[in-house]
Amino acid sequence: MELFELYREISVKNEKKILLIVLDGIGDLPLKEDKTPLEAAKTPNLDILAREASLGLHDPVARGITPGSGPGHLALFGYDPLKYDVGRGVLSALGLGMDLMPEDVAARGNFATIDEQGNVLDRRAGRIPTELNKKLIGKLGTNIKEIDGVKIFLKTEAEHRFARVLRGEGLGGAVSDTDPQVTGKSPLVPTALNKGSEKTAEIVKNFIEKAGQILADEHPANFILLRGFDRLPLIPPVSEIFKLKAGAIASYPMYRGVAKLVGMEILGIEGEGEMLDEKVELLKTKFPEYDYIFFHIKKTDSYGEDGNFDAKVHHIEEFDNVLPEILSISPDVLVITGDHSTPVPLKNHSWHPVPVLLKSEFTRPDETTRFTEKEALKGSLGRFKGTELMPQLMAHALKFKKFGA
């Protein structure tokens, strides 16, 4: 019996409510005064929770594997990211409300800065303002509407990011990324990874060349990088697997997209800012209507990628300040964790396990005093695969009946 078959069989509906809070990229490495941002932050409210909860660490995909945000979140929702491998472009497009058709090919784009030799100076073009992004997307969309009979749709995500969808006949989603992931190198050439995607790769090459010509006089966003090519997959929803009415509160389109992909309802608030107070008020309003809510916080990841230790610490402290308001909704099961680690010294996602805090009336409190990487290492949850978190939430909410005689 596969796990999803088991979950379908033993899941039950009841009145208990689950809240999953994802502090994106929260895991880190020691830096200032040999402390991580979680250790350096003043978090009195998280400290109280840590003394009342069970702590542990999860590996989003597997030990030693650095996950993208898509696989990291799918694992948190209980979906094996190795089985449900979804391109980042699909998630961004869905989160932006772009209606994907089965034959469409989506990709995620970055505005970038290249030098006169064509080498990448900045993969994010200095995180240009979203308003400038919209202006540039308008300029590209006006000048590149179709290539070889294939329609092109573009939409701003936030800051330097955008989504691009190809619609036409004979397209495949197996195309390599053009983002080299490092500076000082030229963008990669999009390559078909199977015969069915050769047409797509040629159109992408053409599109990038045209975009480069149109953006040549712009600064700092004078080029584009594309990654995460894919077509819309079929994934069973959480309402079918876990019998949950689930909602998602997330600002950034990519996270709205992955939630939508697994059948969660997207609740309010959209935009590039954290807007923590507004998110909390929305949570307080909507929580009674749902069995499960996914509550996403982005900037902990952004500051990790920027290598900004102090800003990551500050944002953790901001979250701690609003935590009492969040706890006022009295979730029956509360989890605080991340989708992956984004250590400040690495300025990128990493393979390091992610701290987890789980609290319900049925948890066994650990002898832990803070929500940090080191304290999580001592916790009774131990170290486990990210996909094993969801069944623990279900069990603590008494939403699983007994298996077998």
Describe the 3D structure:
There is one protein chain. The chain has helices at 3-10, 37-40, 44-52, 69-76, 88-95, 130-143, 198-215, 238-241, 253-261, 276-286, 299-305, 309-327, 373-378, 389-396, and strands at residues 18-23, 54-59, 105-114, 120-122, 146-147, 150-158, 161-167, 223-230, 246-249, 265-266, 292-297, 333-337, 354-360, 382-385. The longest helix is centred in the last third of the chain and has 19 residues, at 309-327. The protein is built from 14 helices and 14 strands. Strands 10-9-11-1-12-13-2-14 form an eight-stranded mixed β-sheet, with helices on both faces. The protein is globular, with a radius of gyration of 21 Å. With 405 residues, the protein is of the alpha/beta class. The protein starts with a helix and ends in a 9-residue tail after the last helix. It folds into two domains: 3-84 and 235-396, Alkaline Phosphatase, subunit A; 92-230, no CATH class.
Question: Which helices and strands appear, and what pairs or packs with what?
Answer:
Elements: H1 3-10, E1 18-23, H2 37-40, H3 44-52, E2 54-59, H4 69-76, H5 88-95, E3 105-114, E4 120-122, H6 130-143, E5 146-147, E6 150-158, E7 161-167, H7 198-215, E8 223-230, H8 238-241, E9 246-249, H9 253-261, E10 265-266, H10 276-286, E11 292-297, H11 299-305, H12 309-327, E12 333-337, E13 354-360, H13 373-378, E14 382-385, H14 389-396
Parallel strand pairs: 1-11, 1-12, 2-14, 9-10, 9-11
Antiparallel strand pairs: 2-13, 3-4, 3-7, 3-8, 5-6, 6-7, 12-13
